[in-house]
Amino acid sequence: MSDFLNVSASLTGRRWVGPSEDMIRAADALAQQTGFPKALCDLLARRGVSAEEAESFLAPTLKDLLPDPQSLIDMGTAANRFLTALIKRQKIAVFADYDVDGGSSAALLLTWLREAGHTATLYVPDRIDEGYGPNDDAMAMLARDHDLIVCVDCGTLSHGPIAAAKGADVIVLDHHLGGETLPDCVAVVNPNRQDETGDLAHLCAAAVVFLMLVEVNRQMRESGTRGPDLMAMLDLVALATVADVAPLIGVNRALVRQGLRVMAGRHRTGLRALADVARMDNAPTSYALGFVLGPRINAGGRIGQADLGARLLSTDNEHEARAMAERLDALNSERRDVENAVREAAIAQAEERGLDGPLVWAAGEGWHPGVVGIVASRLKESTNRPAIVIGLEGDEGKGSGRSVTGVDLGASIQRLAAEGLLVKGGGHKMAAGLTVRRDQLEPAMARLSELLARQGAGTAGPADLKLDSMLMPGAADPDLIERIEAAGPFGAAAPAPRFAFPDCAIHFARRVGENHLKVTFSDGHGPRLDAICFGAFDSPIGPALEKHAGARFHLAGRLEINTWGGKRSAQVRLEDAAES
């Protein structure tokens, strides 16, 4: 395939790759058959959508896409036990992971129970003192005072801690990779159990919780009673799905689409307070869930109070919500500072070790466990390789990893744990966590490199930049962007279309903040278009466009609507550039 616009090495060193001839022909045929804008048809063709499927694809509904909850193993048993606890007024505890998915899952259960006239105890482990998932002491403590413990976004590998919950029943609602055996408990509902079909492997934990509540409501209807309104709780499912980087395919598209509509109504006290603190003045988008709200909710579990996110999402107290939102916003700023320091040290170490192998990794003394996952993600993005970042303390290190498409990191980490090279470890294809003894660090990373190399990791250079089509700046307007967004929501496994704007003149370029760049450009034949390039001065893009000296550039990025002073205009989120 020839380089798109003849760009073999952009300012960021990437080759531009455009659609294939077959894809171009399919998009042209779609445009003729549907009358949709060509830019939208380019996207639909990439997704493999036919002309007959186009209308339904652009309007995904839960009615058409929501699976039967009972298609998941143990679902009927889990729902029945949960409903029994409600009917008998038994004491329920919710044990949740400390990230957005865990907090949203817990908030779903707490909100549903409150509306059903019941309360539950929330328990979220401390990331540093207790680590991920159930532990013996916490489970034994909860079991002494509760009849039922529901583990959400965790528990699938927690054989010992679940056995320690003597006297209480345990339900696990999770999505992390399962082992050959499952914990001995009432039910383990998990689309990533080894005995599942894998058809619903893309669900996050909050979606699994939602499906259980759908089944609970169904059982209630059969007995002549009505359960709480689940449609009003889809904002939590959407938030978790996007923030946990679950693939936006199948039913996830409908869950997020409907959840964003619910969120736009601003009915959830905690999310309303957080949106206000984050100065969100537009209708929520999947981008806002992943990059504005999500990081703030995560900040409590990363460097602050572990249960803060779940409490914010489940509260109906305005004053409490405002205080928690402000605390999370402050923690997020603190998290950024901690992350920057760790990132600089990790990049320097990884570069010294070499960035051309199948695995990029770094480990440092006292690196905060709450930011190692974010730093691993940055390393992965910049090297196009799986990355592990580990914080060392005492005899052990706690780390987090992120993978690239086509390389199953979670399965490799689980194998390392089974081989005894890790104290523990698990996760899913694209992300995993681990605990390793200091004296086993080098052998563990060497073995992990070997396992990842077998899957093809390390064979690629810098990631090619994939472009959907060319667009003239004058064609980009809010109407076109709204038509394109109908093919969303966009996110993991369903990226927003990326357009190339060929041979453009830079009319205005100004540095914004420390390292961002604001640009206005045109092709000389129509209206000018604004663009924002975040982190522009972390790469050659910033200096090149700021000091353009009249040179013309091919520009690449994604379209978005910018609202300012009540006016809506098209804007490009600029990702790359090349001299034309």
From TrEMBL:
The keyword Hydrolase applies. Belongs to the RecJ family. Residues 360-452 form the DHHA1 domain. Residues 321-351 form a coiled coil. Signal peptide: none annotated. One of its GO terms (molecular function) is exonuclease activity. This is Single-stranded-DNA-specific exonuclease RecJ.
